[in-house]
Amino acid sequence: MKRVLILAPVLAAALTALAVPALAGPVSLLPDPVDDDGRITLGDLFDNAGGAADVVVGRRAGATAVLEASQVQIAARRAGLEWSNPAGLRRIVVREGGAVSAEASARPAIASVAARASASVEVLTYARSLAAGEVIQPEDVIWASVQSHLASAGAPQDAEAVIGLQAKRALRAGSPVAQRDLASPQVIARNDMVEVAYLSDGVELTVTGKATRNASAGEAVPILNVQSNRTIDAVAVAPGRAVAGPAAQMARRNPQQFAAR
């Protein structure tokens, strides 16, 4: 009887250990994750994923897929992997991969000529048609090949740079993403009552006026002081808030630093 009592805690601890996935230790995110079949696994994202390599964490329908880094981190932990996300990523872009076919590798010269003839480049495109005013979501942009003359000069090279921006006009599915078509989401509408902060050398004065046009964060917006009937040149920083004076130029570059004042 005494032997049974001694072994029982040991057996319980062993069963508990078996019920919890063993940590494979810290893993690192691959610099350019790709998948071959549309099923995005932990092995596609991390090196040394070990036995968790085949765990599916997402699906890719187009040329790229965008995953939320926090959700990937949770899925990795559940599978016994530890990823600390040292770069503080919010999203992970996974591209279409796959090995080059034997026929294509046997004819490199022909492939090169065909590439020059088509003059195609890989750019961000819209995965669906968007109406004016819609905010770009991770699933709204994908990488695709287009003829080089259709690609805009200075086109965004990172999906992260356009996610969260607002369409200035209607945008067609499949068309290349152009920075001129996007803007920060509108924070002030025409005729809104806006609190304007005049900032100079640590002194702050505030006045309330009426916006004379729509504005996104970081955009100039003339504010009419209804008491004096004078117009204040200001920069929108947040819903119902704008900045004037010497700080206005700084607000153009980084409106977020004034938004919480």
From TrEMBL:
Originating species: Brevundimonas guildfordensis
Q: What keywords were assigned to this record? A: Cell projection, Cilium, Flagellum, Periplasm, Signal
Q: Is Signal set as a keyword in this record?
A: yes
Q: Where is the signal peptide?
A: 1-24
Q: Which compartments is it annotated to reside in?
A: Periplasm
Protein known as: Flagellar basal body P-ring formation protein FlgA
Domain SAF residues, every copy: 121-183
**Alphabetical list of PANTHER family matching this protein:** FLAGELLA BASAL BODY P-RING FORMATION PROTEIN FLGA
Task: List where this protein forms a coiled coil.
Answer: none
What Pfam families does the database record attribute to this sequence?
ChapFlgA (PF13144)
List the taxonomic lineage: Bacteria, Pseudomonadati, Pseudomonadota, Alphaproteobacteria, Caulobacterales
CDD domains xref list: SAF_CpaB_FlgA_like
